[in-house]
Write a structure and sequence with these properties.
By secondary structure, the chain is α/β, with parallel strands linked by helices. The chain contains 15 helices and 12 strands. It has helices spanning 8-14, 16-24, 38-42, 44-49, 59-76, 85-88, 111-122, 137-141, 160-180, 185-206, 209-219, 234-248, 284-295, 310-315, 331-348, and strands at residues 28-29, 34-35, 53-57, 80-84, 100-105, 126-131, 144-147, 224-229, 251-256, 273-277, 300-306, 318-322. A hairpin with a 4-residue loop joins strand 1 and strand 2. Helix 2 (16-24) packs parallel to helix 9 (160-180) and helix 11 crosses helix 15. The structure holds 5-amino-5-deoxy-1-O-phosphono-D-mannitol. 5-amino-5-deoxy-1-O-phosphono-D-mannitol (M6R) binds next to helix 5 and helix 12. It catalyses: D-fructose 6-phosphate + L-glutamine = D-glucosamine 6-phosphate + L-glutamate.
């Protein structure tokens, strides 16, 4: 059942070329320049007219939501807020009739997310669910939605469900931006092609597995890790840190790279590995300066870079290479080394990576 892999987590990481492909299939047609997504089409007026979009989720799904905020605001110019379901449900949030709420959940059974959307529904919001498990409670409680089609995810750490969530969210942003007219045709077609190309690029990211395994042995005894990214890769820094905490029990923090100097830089010394998600994008020069700041304080830099990036290769202690992609879709590639690094460190420490202590696959209690 593990298909020859040692663990479900590894199997699920390696399934991503086909799970992302399955998620895009029948929806994205770059050759014809079209997107088909029934749930979006049926609610396009509400989405176009929404004064704002609220995204509600927990954990890894919340990280997908944070990236969606950046992408939807960029392409659709609709204000987006991302909330932890557990906070949203207990405070007294302002919800207007016609607000669109996107709930993201792999299991579709997360209690906090379910209660949060029920509360919002009572106040007139439209609920759009992005769920992996077909027929789950959140799918049923939503007015409309889109499944991620990643197949059953057994490992407690979410991997393939996350990349499928990102794919669905990108489709929604592209469709909405196109329909609203905030995204011009040229960029729309370019991004559609970039999105469609992701499943073909994932294998090159997976090919770094052996190199990442070596890094895992090198860094497995570190007490803490810092994960830094900017822009579209900031949510990936958060996700990398969460994966490491869950699977290897090493304390890790994800931060926006420029926020370092407001505190966390005090942690940096020769014992601290700092993972930079530093693929080539519009923040590239800025992140290079952040790498210099860490090197000046003798931190160990592990950088996820775009292939051919000699500048960062010279500066970093170790690099992990991923294929080039437009910055809006690149996180679907840059997250893969995060998953593999956490996995191999967990394995190197002899831990039960599929069932980490204290965690359950779906959190059906508050
Ligand atoms: O099933 P959900 O997507 O609603 O689950 C949300 C979180 O519990 C989940 O993402 C959790 O953070 C994972 N263990 C992360 O790997």
């Amino acid at each position: 059942e593990k298909g020859g892999y040692d663990h479900f987590m590894l199997k699920e990481i390696f399934e991503q070329p086909s799970t992302v492909f399955d998620c895009l299939r029948g929806r994205v047609d770059a050759a014809n320049g079209t997107i088909t997504m029934a749930g979006v089409e049926a609610n396009i007026e509400q989405l176009k007219n929404a004064q704002r979009i609220l995204i509600i989720a927990c954990g890894t799904s919340w990280h997908a939501g944070l990236l969606a905020e950046y992408i939807i605001e960029e392409l659709c110019r609709t204000p987006v807020e991302v909330e932890y379901a557990s906070e949203f449900r207990y405070r007294n949030p302002v919800i207007h009739k016609g607000d669109v709420i996107i709930a993201i959940s792999q299991s579709g059974e997360t209690a906090d997310t379910l209660v949060a959307i029920e509360k919002a529904k009572e106040q007139g919001a439209i609920i759009f669910g992005i769920v992996n498990v077909v027929g789950s409670s959140i799918a049923r409680a939503s007015h409309a939605g889109a499944y991620t089609h990643a197949g059953p995810e057994i490992g407690v750490a979410s991997t393939k469900a996350f990349t499928a969530q990102l794919a669905v969210l990108a489709i929604i942003a592209l469709k909405l931006g196109y329909e609203k007219g905030t995204l011009d045709n040229k960029r729309f077609l370019h991004l559609l092609n970039e999105l469609e190309a992701i499943p073909e690029k994932i294998p090159a990211a997976l090919n770094q597995a052996e190199a990442i395994k070596q890094l895992a042995y090198k860094y497995k005894d570190a007490r803490d890790f810092l994960y830094l990214g900017r822009g579209y890769n900031f949510p990936i820094a958060l996700e990398g840190a969460l994966k490491l905490k869950e699977i290897s029990y090493i304390h890790a923090e994800g931060y926006p790279a420029a926020e370092m100097k407001h505190g966390p830089i005090a942690l940096v010394d020769e014992n601290l590995p700092v993972v930079f998600i530093a693929t080539r994008d519009s923040y590239h020069e800025k992140i290079i300066s952040n790498i210099q700041e860490i090197k000046a304080r003798k931190g160990k830099v592990i950088a996820v870079i775009t292939e051919g990036d000699d500048v960062i290769t010279q500066m970093a202690d170790d690099v992990i290479v991923v294929p080039a992609a437009d910055e809006l879709v690149a996180p679907m590639l840059s997250v893969i080394p995060m998953q593999l690094l956490a996995y191999y460190i967990g394995v190197a420490k002899g831990l039960d990576v599929d069932k980490p202590r204290n965690l359950a696959k779906s959190v059906t209690v508050e």
